[in-house]
Write a structure and sequence with these properties.
The chain has about 200 residues and is mostly helical. The chain has two domains: about 80 residues, no CATH class; about 100 residues. About 75% of the residues lie in helices and about 5% in strands. It has nine helices and two strands. It has a two-stranded antiparallel sheet. Strand 1 and strand 2 form a beta hairpin. Helix 1 runs antiparallel to helix 2.
């Protein structure tokens, strides 16, 4: 559920970008709707709305949500003001490299690696497993940042946007899936005690 909520601003961004540009009049002011810069405006607005609502509901945001929100603001504003998509193209690489830095720092300065903070409530695994997974995530974020940078500056805007919205999601789900064999034996399945009692009667 959390991952879907985090994904809403990107879906809004893609939907607006895919629309043909048109000029609409709002309170006597002509404004372009559709296309890249309009999509950046909607990404900014949707992110503030989604994360603002989460903050009000949960009374908190996790550090990754704060970083994502800050990055949207920092990279969307100059994109909109200067009408230059280069700013937005740097968002995904830099955010991924920040995440990699956090995962590295969590092992050196924290009592738990970052991945254990994220998944430890659901999986009871030994410390060495969490360290191994944490290292895998560090390399993943570094590589994903590099891939985003290459895609953004070597491919067409159309391919870049589609990769930004869908490619990253597919790669991340694939990466998580590859970790399942490592975690599977540590996932606790609650026994249905009552069912067992009934079967023994």
């Amino acid at each position: 559920m959390k991952q879907f909520i985090d994904y809403i601003p990107l879906l809004v961004f893609f939907s607006v970008w895919a629309m043909d540009e048109r000029v609409i009049n709002v309170a006597g002011y002509d404004h372009t709707f559709g296309g890249m810069f309009s999509a950046a405006e909607f990404l900014l607005a949707a992110s503030v709305l989604v994360y603002g609502s989460l903050f009000v509901y949960q009374k908190r945001l996790d550090k990754f949500q704060w970083i994502t929100l800050a990055a949207v603001v920092l990279f969307c504003l100059p994109t909109i003001i200067f009408k230059n998509i280069v700013f937005l193209k740097w968002k995904a690489p830099i955010v991924n490299w920040i995440f990699a830095t956090i995962f590295i720092a969590s092992r050196k300065f924290g009592d738990k690696p970052a991945i254990e903070h994220m998944m430890g409530h659901a999986v009871k695994a030994p410390k060495e497993v969490w360290y191994k997974l944490n290292t895998m995530w560090v390399f993943y974020f570094i590589v994903l940042g590099a891939i985003n940078l290459i895609v953004a500056f070597t491919l067409s805007e159309d391919l870049w946007i589609k990769f930004k919205v869908f490619g990253n999601l597919i790669l991340t789900f694939g990466f998580v899936f590859l970790q399942m064999p490592i975690l599977a034996k540590y996932i606790e399945v609650e026994d249905d005690g009552e069912a067992s009692d009934e079967e023994s009667v």
